[in-house]
Each structure stands twice: as structure tokens, then as C-alpha cells.
Amino acid sequence: MSSKTLPYSIKDIQYDNAKFRRRSLFQVISQTFLTNKMKRECMSCSTGNGVARAIGSKQGDNSIMDGGGIGVKRFWRKPPRLPPHLSPDEMNISNKSTHNPAKSNLDSEWVAKQESVKKAFIHAWSGYKKYAMGYDELMPLSQKGIDGLGGLGATVVDALDTAMIMRLDDVASEAGSWIEKNLPERICNKGQVNLFETTIRVVGGLLSAYHLSEMNPNSTKNGPKPSVYLENAKNLADVLLTAFTSSPTAIPFSDVVLQDHKAHPAPDGLSSTSEVSTLQLEFNYLSFLTGDPKYSVESMKVLEHMKTLPKVEGLVPIYISPSSGEFSGNNIRLGSRGDSYYEYLIKVWLQQRQNNWSYLHEMYEEAMKGVKHLLVKKSKPNGLVFVGELPGGVDGGFSPKMDHLVCFLPGTLALGATKGITKAKAMEENLLTFEDLENLKLAEDLAKTCFEMYSVTSTGLAPEIAYFNSEGYSEDNLDGGNKSSEYVHDIVIKHADRHNLLRPETVESLFVLYRITEDSKYREWGWSIFEAFEKYTKVESGGYTSLDDVTMLPPRRRDKMETFFLGETLKYLYLLFGESNVIPLTQFVFNTEAHPIPIITTTAKKE
């Protein structure tokens, strides 16, 4: 199938395109001489240490926040020519951050906003602690708890590393003490749990807490020893492994009964593609810590098997059968049941580059080309770039439907392009290919669309699902309610899709894009979203609540605070407003539940 271009001209990519034009022999020789001279000068100055020295060095405080000394080797290949020059806008961003005399005032402003996020976390935790401690989730309006995730106290574990990052030692100690006292018994005696949800929230949360507490023992000085977290993660993972070992193929069953140590498929016999392919970061790290390869071996069999299956330009259906090992149906989307398959391709590769898992990077690159060719379109009348779906497969019709879940993609694209370093540094070091720059442009365009899904509504909060007026699709009288929005006629919000679950995907991408581009607009957008959460979802007695309809004022409220509001949404907002050396993207990958997992290198030592 012939490749199409993105729905915007390549000239829209904001950089000097001269490196792709023909140059004379004199230009080549003189430019080479200039490049070598510039590199020698940069390496000798205080701000030009180079990526190899900046990444993985133990500079300053060797705390949990600067990566705990786990290093990263240089791993990028260099293209043969000079990198594109920064555009004037990008130069302004860089200059403002280093030469603006008002920088200290800006810093204090963001410190204050970060404190506001910390206060929101304390308010959410206090409501949970008061009314639902030990339950999976809080029902803040009813002021009671509910077990919707198997009864392992999911909010406690999900929130723990957020408290550690925020240096809320009292909360971390409370959560840790509950885990030490209650979780072992629950792992032994609880019933059915979902393999995916339990791995990303509980196993991932425990492993992250183990690493952070190991690197900063003061964070849980009144709580348990770090080994408690690792022991519980291992014991839980041992039971979850039955989902893999019970299956006749490399594809695990979806559900595990903890007390029986048995696993079984979902009622329809199928597993979600995203669920079976979003376990590997956690299981790989557990194998690294314990020295037992079984966790990594079983989980990586899934991706190794998926590598062999037929795909559509790297894109895959959203269901897969554990009984046959084959994909089921033709539905292709990057929303629910498809999303984190693509996210983990690049993140698992980043996590362990020293392993010969280059096939993951190749699968990721192929998939992103498929996304750009088959799923990326522009809205009408104002040209928002969005990612649609192929519910009937490549031979069926295109749907201009975009889940809020798809808003993970801008951050993933940016991370895949620069591998976690800033765009300016990557360009200075000649690390970005043409495709990397194209993916960064798409990331920024999609991040704008995700933010406009918020600003187009009456509440300033996004719906669960949006549609886009575009070629072949148009609906009237289903706008978000904010008539002053420039994009009020581009975005369609159907009545069944108007709820908001306090989801993190957009602020996750804003966090990653701010770290990589250093563009303050992503902070401003994040603050706007946080203010809307504060205004419309905060429950005075404690906690925050989901909403039924973001297009109405006042919005109808649902009675639930998802665990990911503490584990993801507030964590990403806190990090967005903070210093970039806190949980650096060059030393950690975030699992799909926002639990930071250290990047593993050949020089890293087990704790």
C-alpha cells in the first residue's frame, strides 16, 4: 500500500530544512570543519557537557529524585549531517529559561502551583483514608469504599509512590504500614482479579515504592522496610504467573483467582490486546530485582509471539485469543483495548536496551508509520489533528472517534523521538532523524487537540470520547458548551460520551512534552486543567469525584474517585510543575499507571 503524507505539509515542521538540500563540496568541507570546532568548544563549556556525561552521572544530590544513580549508555546512531537549527520560537524558549531576569519569579509561581497539587493530593487521600481505607476505591459522595478491582486496596498502592515523590512522609508511612499489615493476607485469600489491572496498579506500584524507598529511606522512616514492597510484589506476581502458565499459547488468560492459584479466560474467551502486552515493564523489573528470570521470560513471550502475527502496517486488532494465539476481529484503534500495546513497545525497549530487543523498536516505528498513514486526519473547519479508528479494519470505513485514552500518544511519540532528553539537546547532538522530527510535530499537534477537548466544554474538562467533524462526517448541536472556543464546531460530544473519570492521559502527555520541548505552554494548559478539576470535581468532605456530563453547568456528579487520580493524574501534574531532574525521563520509564520504573543498564546493580 502506498504511503500518504501527514495531513499537514512537511514545511509546517518548525526547523531549518537546509540539511536535506543539496550542498556543494565547499559547503560540505567548511560545514564539517565548523561542526568539529563547535563540538570541541561545547564540550569544554559548563553547559555543554554532552548527553553521555549528563545522562547517568551522579550530579548533586543522589536522591530518589535524580534517578538513584542508575545510568544510561549512549545508544543513538548519528545521521551524517548537521542537525536542523532551532527555530526562532524554540530559541526564545531556550533563551527565556537561561537569560530571563524574571525566571526566579516564574519558578516561585510554579512552586506555588505545585504546592496546590500537593494539597489536592492530601485532600483526596484524606477522604479515602477517612471513608474507604483498605477498599479499592472511594465513593466520595456516599462517603464509603468499594472493591471494584479485586479487593487488594488498590488506591493505597497506587497512591504510595505519588506520596513519596511529593515527600509526604506521613502519607507514605500510612500507606506502607497498611500494606505491611494487610496485603499479604489479601494476596492469599482474595478471589478473582484482572491480570492487567493488578499488574499495572499493584505490582507496578509496589516495585516503584520499593525503588524509591530504597533510594531515600527517610521517605518511609515510620513505615515498613523497602523489602516489604518487593516481597509483596513477588508473592503477587507468583500467583499472577498462572495466567501465563495455564494458557495453551503465549497469550495469557485475562483473570486469576488468587486464593485458588488458578486462571481462566474472559467469558468470551478473548483477551484485550493492550492488556496482554502491558505487563512487561513490571515483570522485567521484578526479574532484575529478584534474579529470577521467570517473570521476564513469561511476559516477553507475549511480545515475541506478537512479533510473528500479521499486522496492518504495524497496527493490530484490539482482541487476541489465548486459545489460538491469533488476533480476533478487525477493529483497530488506539483507544481502549489497543492503547498501551503501542506504548509498551517503545517503553520496554527503552527499559532494557542492552538486551537484543531491537524488534520492539522496529515494531513501534512501523506502527507509528501506520498511525500516520491510516488513522491521522484533520477536523473541519479549523484543522485539529486527531487519531481516528478503523472499526471494520483497513477495508472498512474510517471513524472520526477519539477516546480520551488516545491522549497518551503525544507523550509516547515525544519519548520515542528523543529517548527522554530535551529536543534542544537532541538536535545539538545530532540525534534526531527526519522521522523523529515528524513524530515530534505530530505529538505537539495531538497534544493541542487533547487540550482543546478540555477547553471546548463548559466545565473545561474533557469528555471520555470525542468525535470530529471532518471529511465524510458532520454532526450539529452536539458541541461541548463553550461557545467561545475556536473549535466549538470541530469537536462533537455525543450524549453517552460526556462523562469525565478524572483521567490522566492528557496531563501525562503535557508532562512529557514539557520535559522534552521546555515549552511553558504545556504547563499553562496543565494548570488550566487542574483548576477545572478543583472547581468541579472536588468534594468538600474529602476526595474528588467523576462527572456525568462535562458540557453542563453545574455538572452532574458521579460517586467515584478512581485510583488513578492519585496514582497518575495528580502525580503527572505535580511533576509537570516541578524541576526536570525529579524522576528524569532518561533514567525512568513510567508504566501505564504512572509508576516510575528505573531503566535497567548493564552497570546497574540490584538493590
Structure description:
This is alpha-1,2-Mannosidase. Disulfide bonds join 407-450. Residues 92-103 have a biased composition (Polar residues). Ca(2+) binds at residue 592. This protein is 46% helix and 7% strand. Residues 1-64 and 67-99 have low confidence and may be disordered. The protein contains 20 helices and 15 strands. The longest helix is centred in the N-terminal third of the chain and has 30 residues, at 103-132. A three-stranded antiparallel beta sheet has the order 3-4-5. Strands 6-7-8 form a three-stranded antiparallel beta sheet. Strands 11-12-13 form a three-stranded antiparallel beta sheet, with no helix packed on it. The N and C termini lie far apart (49 Å).
What are the salient characteristics of this protein?
mainly alpha; 607 residues; 3-stranded antiparallel beta sheet; single chain; 20 helices; 46% helix
Gyration radius from CA atoms, angstroms: 24 Å
- The level of helicity is 40-55%
> Helix- and strand-based class?
mainly alpha
Number of strands: 15
Count of discrete alpha- or pi-helical segments spanning 4 or more residues:
20
Give the termini distance in whole angstroms.
49 Å
Give the overall shape, derived from the CA principal axes. Answer: globular
Q: Name the poorly predicted regions.
A: 1-64, 67-99
Q: Can you list the strand order of the major beta sheet?
A: 3-4-5
How much strand content do the residues show? Answer: 5-15%
Q: What is the residue-mean pLDDT, rounded to a whole number?
A: 87
Largest sheet composition: 3 strands, antiparallel
